[in-house]
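Workshop exercise sheet. Pairs work together: one partner reads the sequence aloud, the other fills in the structure field after running the prediction. Swap roles for the next sheet.
Pair: D.N. / O.F.
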Amino acid sequence: MNSYTKILNRLLSTIFISTIFTSGCTERIDPSTIRMGLVSAPVDLDPRRATDAASSRINRLIYQRLVEFDATNLPIPALAEWTQPAPNIYRFHLHKPPSTRIFSNGQIVTAEDVRATLASILDPATGSPYRTQIAAIKDMKVLDNNTLEINIAQPDPLFPTRLVLDILPAKLIASNHPFHNQPVGSGTFKFHSWPQTGKLQLMRRTDKQMLEFLEVKEPGVRVMKLMRGEINLLQSDLPPELFRFLRGRPKLRVLERPGSNFTYIGLHMQDPALSQLVIRQAIAYAIDRDAIIQYLLADGARPAQSLLPPQHWAGAKDLPTLVYDLVKARQLLAQAGYNLNHPLELSYKTSTDPFRVRLATVIQAQLKAAGINLKVQSLDWGTFYGDIKTGRFQMYSLAWVGIKTPDHFRAIVHSTAVPPQGSNRGRYHNPKVDALLDRAAQLPTLEAQATMYKELQHLLLKDLPYIPLWYENQIAAVG
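Structure field:
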């Protein structure tokens, strides 16, 4: 069972217990439908194509994966365990009992289903955004009903992490089954109905408990519906002040756990001012992250020093802490020729999201106290993101969501990864960083790679091509 399913089942159990106690019934679980409010409806329930958050969350319930991640983001067996007979060969064996890997149409998951799923993702006609993720596959061979051998182009100890993919039935793939609106998986839940865009129903296969997902775009309306009992569950996607409000409601329960979504300030490293390390250091010292987390984020985050949290298998646990030091920030700015009477002028781009605008104005006030006048530009998402990708900015703030593997560093700080080749949006170029990344990719074990990536994180925190801010908590509210 994947981690998202475990969390949801735990939340559903909380709802069931609450229902039992409020109804006075102690003999059986209330069979009524459990309703979850979503900020946006799912778009595509074909996991080969789905990229939006709502579809991805729901697909985690419908399908099982070949591989999952543990708490440190190391790959662990899900449907299959694996061996590596040769550096370029992985042999995956479906180790779960057949009774625990049955598609909702009654077929047992076999090695051919795995092969067909991966082959369809690799087929350009499918149009899967995950094709490049497994592009190293040269050929696949079904050895028996439960064993698939995969030959990759070159040794890659991270290859099992590329296979965190949902498995579909081979026969339905061959018949061009419409998975996008009639999904068939082997997960804990099965598809029940999708009567309209903003209303989707799943059924838990063990006890036929119904779970309904309802689109409610406005966060305030979602909260009111939760309080009135029209929906039973919310997860994230709420402004911090609303979670602060929900924490104080006696009939509601708010559940939180540390998350890994990484919020940062991006900097244009070719800008005359921001190319100076003392300026970047001054910005880092001038931002009071603890105050922002406490007052703006309602304590719903923890400070970050790197893209990877310290509990990640490649995370650096000994990184120095970025501290708020206004005196130090002013001293560094003075070295660059700026002070309160002669402030540095910079621009900061953000979206029109109300929370992001509030965050920008807080950062603006904090930097002003150090001697930096920040001009905030609030743009619609399309314009904002377009400017970020094309390098039309000095500073901006965004978040990296769902980062699992350390090779993502290559996409964001290697000098060859400038858009459109990658996500090095700040046009950062450091030969030492490039060399570390190139060497890490050639190392034969995850342990050896971890050592290299930890060294990289120390270098990046010292050089500050971006300013780490925080990791947002995962938060759910149950009514």
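Discussion prompt: The chain has three domains: 3-46+53-60+187-237, 64-174, 259-472. What would you look at next?
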